[in-house]
Amino acid sequence: MLTSKVAKRYAQGLLDFTNESGQTDAVFSEMKDVVKIMSESADLNKFFLTPYIDANKKTEVASEIFKSFSLVSQNLIKLIIKHGRENQLKNVAQQFINKVEDIKGVQRITLTTATQISNENIEQILRSTDLVNQNAQFDLEVNVNPAILGGYILRVGDQQVDASVKSKLNKIKKDFQLN
Fold it and tell me: Sorted alphabetically, which Pfam families does this protein's record hold (predicted)?
């Protein structure tokens, strides 16, 4: 997923500010809530993306939705809306989460399988590779994609192990075409 420079800059600014004020953990939790709320509410996304609704109305609605948040998070959300970047709110929150997790050494792992698999199989896959640091914390996202036909695709950070049936069939196909 491509993330805009805007989201990265806002997230870095927020991280710098929260590190100085010692509020990183509280804001981290709130940014997780922002991502969750924005992911689950299509209506809120439509509202924020509607160009003919002015920034003051959007700020009022955001203030009401996020009223339980700290002043730092509320001010960030207001600033984003004031500058017309409300379409980047979820991305800013996700980038902040990623930056804090990077500092804490949390690995982001994505496992894609053709069908739903058990937790025991997931653990076995994670133990079978050197990419996963068994002593570190990790954030695991499991996706189901029937298009890979079988096997799995494991992505840890910027490295990937493709043990899917589809990629193996494509490799065989290329080998036949070359010979």
Answer: OSCP
